[in-house]
Each structure stands twice: as C-alpha cells, then as structure tokens.
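Need the bound structure for zinc ion, inputs here:
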Amino acid sequence: MLLIAMAIRVKTTRRKVFETDAQTRVIGVLGGRLSDEGSLLDREMNGALSAFLKKSKFKGEFGTHTIYSNEDVQVVFLGLGKRRGHTLEQVRLAGVKLAQLADSLAAREVTCENFLAARLGKKEASYALAEGLLLGGYRFDKYKGESAESKVRFVIAQGFGPAVEKAQQVAAGVYLARDLVNEPPNVLNPAELARRAEKMARAEGLEVRVLGPAEIQKMGMGAYWAVAQGSANEPRFIELVYRPKGEVKRRVALVGKGLTFDTGGYSLKPADSMKTMKGDMSGAAAVLGAMQTIARLQPPLEVRAYVAAAENMISGHAYRVDDIIRAFNGKTIEVLNTDAEGRLTLADALAYASSQEPEAIVELSTLTGSCVVALGRQIAGLFSSDEPLARELQKAAAAAGEKVWQMPMEEDYRKLLKSEVADLKNIGNRWGGSIQAALFLSEFVSVPFVHLDIAGPAFVENAADNPHGPAGGTGFGVRTLVSWLTSD
Ligand code: BES
Ligand code: ZN
Ligand code: ZN
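Answer from helper R.:
Posting the output first, comments after.
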C-alpha cells in the first residue's frame, strides 16, 4: 500500500464548542483567562471550568495544557500565551500538540475551538489548525506488529470548511513525502521510487515518464550515470508534468535529489554518518508530495518535476575518485570525492530541466553536511543568484511555516571548483562547503534558479528537532513549494 491510513480526520462545524457533544473538548486560555468559547462552555457547566482554573496553578503559557474531567466530559485547556502578538504558526503548533495529546489520551472525538480566529481570521486560523493537527498526527508504523490503529476525529467549532479541505490536500502531500523518506532503502530503491511516482501520477492525472539505464546513458547524462553505475539496483529518471486546464500563467520546474541510499561510495562514509542516508531522497520526496497536492489544487501554472533517482554504492562497477565524467550540458567533471554524488546527479537533472526552458527552477536536496553545521536541524539554506525568485521562495516558506535562510552565492569561491584536468571538480575545500556545492549546481542551470539545501530539516533522529511531527522524514519543502505555486 502506498500510504498508511490517515488516522486523523478533521471536520468543521458551524456550532460553538458548548453546542457540541464530543467527549473531549478543547478551549484556549489566553493571557491566563478563558477564551470567549471557553466562557460559554463554562456558563453551560455552571462555572465548573472557571472554578477549576482558579484552583489549579495553570498560567496558560504557550504550549502548556491542563485537563478538567467529570463523568460526561473532558475539557482540555490549551495555553495560548499572552494576549497579543499571535501568529498562524502558533495555531499550527497548537494543532501539532493537540494531535499528540489526543493520541496519548486515546481520544476518539475531539471538538476544538477555532483558536485565535477572531484575531487571525476564521479561514486562516482554521487552515493553520487543521494543518497542524494533520501534520502532528502522522505516524509511520506499517512495519510494527503491535501498531494499534488509533482513529481520532477532530471537529473545529466555527471553522471554515474549504480551508480545512485545502489543509487536507497539503497534508496528504506531506504524508506522501514522509512515507517515501521513511521507507527503508531495501524497499524503496530507485525502481520502487519510480513505481510510486507513476502510481501517484496516474491517480492524480499527471503525465509521467520514467527512463532506465540505457536511456539515461543515451541522453548523455554521464554524471548521473557515473553515480548510479555502482549499484545492482538500476537508476530511474522520473519526469512528471502537471498542465492546468485553462490558461498557463507561468511554466516552472521542480527538481529533487533522489539518492535512495548514500553510502558515500569509495569515499565511504563512517558508520555513524551513514545512519540516516535513506533520507537522501528527501528532495525527491518533497517534489513528489508537492506534485500530488498541485494536481489536486489545480493552480494555473505548468509544473514539471524531475528526479534522477540512484543509489550510491560500492562494487566493481562503481565510479572512482579521479574519474572524469561528462554531464548532459557537455561540461566535464573530475571526481575527487564519490560522496559528493548529489551534485553530480543534480547536474544532469538541472541541465535537462533547463533544456526544457522553464521560467524558473526550484531544486531541493539533502546536499551538504556543511549546511547542517551552518544552520542546524530546523533551517534550510536558500541559494540563488536571482533575487526576485529568492524573495518569492522566502515569502512562500514563511507563509508555510518552514524555516529557510538565504546564503550567499559568493562568486569568488567559484575558482575553488576549477580543475587542472577537466572543466570542474566535484569538491573544493572544507570551508563554506554548502556554498561551493550551490555554485557547482549553478554551472548546470541556464534559467532563474533557487537551490534549497534541506540536509538539516528533511530528516531528524529526534522528534524534538521536528516542530511539526515525529522523528524521521519531515516532508520539509512540500508546504513551501505548494505555497509558492498556489499564491496569487
Ligand atoms: N547526502 C550527503 C549530505 C548530507 C549530510 C545529508 C548529512 C544529510 C545529512 C551528501 O551526499 C554528502 O555526502 N556530502 C558531502 C560533500 C563533501 C564530500 C564535499 C558532505 O556534506 O560531507
Ligand atoms: Zn554523499
Ligand atoms: Zn548524498
């Protein structure tokens, strides 16, 4: 099965919290006081809630909670912090927390007030809350024998239905990305990634084309092939196209790094660094997740997606250090480190994407450990020599609640990639490695281009590093891409 069942459902009702009859109800505490919805429920319950709050030491700090219960009902008080300065991201985080809480309470039906709707807008607040609930409720437990399917239904009181539907389409894209990343690499090899892309494309009405080893070589994708040739699991080049029904306002392309496993090749990774390398296809996963959502939301753009899927392995067929290879655009590359393989697969994917002349390319990759050192686990590096496009993506990421930080494309570092024997070498020196990698990629692109290095936020070993869900694949990038492609 492609997707694990969504254990969380979110619906809206026009009624207020006190007018519903769910066993579990959630109300906000703002500036230490009951919200308006809470006060109405309190009145219905003859002041039991305000009496409880008074007795308890609950201050309502953001993200904290306390629970009142009697025989009929369980009321969760969720701290929303101070009275002012709220953001939609806080509502989203409240949703994440509630989903986790509902899990531990084994709640089945939960009515929840539309937090901060009066301040942030009914539609916007509903969207953020639903998104948070869905993102926070994700689980990857298909390989666990004892996994009990906990089903919970959330009802957002006085919520806005269409916003919740959109949140569902976006979350489904994030779920797809997370599932792809979380699949173990013995299951999700390049051929399996391609099959899942095809299955999704057919279900959503996208065009899809998949190339194998012979076609990859024939097309002249020598850099991509060099990385792929060492593995018994064949590479697959995946191309998807979304075409809108009506007028095409813009033609854009998405590219995702698709290493289903990265051992480092002959420049072998130490055991500890290899541990999360099934996540080295997170860029591809984000692109596929975003394409699924785009197909459902139908924006008036043409969107092409490209993934050069491969596995970086060791064998008698594997590429070596000192090899010189030729990319799709004719440039030659001296391989000095087989662990800098992502940029080689991307060189060909980007050059091929450029040859189709889109107006912009956005590419996502778990490209460098250096970017994780620079920005940590929660922030992606954004690289671009096109300022307007960089602004567009920054805005989209901010609206989506995904953190990106622009890094410099220092032209003076380009000389670090000069080779004595070829046009380029695939590594420079140790300093500013993520910048050198971005400069390397730019050698293969001929249209406005943004590179997002998602090595930090795409995959986390500790849930504490993922503000919007559990440990493992985070689906980082899906929401930024969707926000970029569906904003007017
Ligand atoms: N897939 C890795 C980058 C990575 C590191 C992703 C940590 C996620 C977490 C990439 O292929 C790689 O190995 N990059 C090398 C480049 C170096 C050899 C120039 C790196 O970052 O060490
Ligand atoms: Zn590598
Ligand atoms: Zn890699």
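Comments: Residues 1-6 have pLDDT under 50 and may be disordered. The two ends are 35 Å apart (CA to CA).
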